[in-house]
Amino acid sequence: MATRFDPFQEMDRVLGQMLAADRASAGMPMDLYRDGDHYVLHVDLPGADPGTIDVAVEDRTLTIRANRSGRTEHDVQWLAKERPAGTYARQLTVGRGLALDRISATYADGVLTLTIPVAEEAKPRRIEVQHGSAATSIEAAPAGTAG
Hints:
The chain is α+β, with helices and mostly antiparallel strands. 14% of the residues lie in helices and 31% in strands. The chain has a four-stranded antiparallel sheet with strand order 1-2-7-6, with no helix packed on it. It has a three-stranded antiparallel sheet with strand order 3-4-5, with no helix packed on it.
């Protein structure tokens, strides 16, 4: 069976993957997972000034901002200057069922960690089912009559 191969399309696909990876790594790459009754979000912020890290929640939008200052050496000849500086921001829309008023945040070794608890009303709960003679029955009154 013959397959059609377009080298330009393949090159475009590979280049697109590389650029997408660069955009993710240049911003704020993150990991998110659920651990029991809370979610954990790890955001890489290497070199961020700890005092500039801001985490805010408004309605269902979680916003993370941080600033990394650029090096300001005077009278030097830069040979390479690839580390980005400036303000970084990332917004996530979060679903219902989270206790957004109880988010905790820590910053260590260039990683911001947010712990987001699941709201009590969203946690799974067991409902007891009665059976046999212990079950109570309720009969509906015929229409037009009062109980």
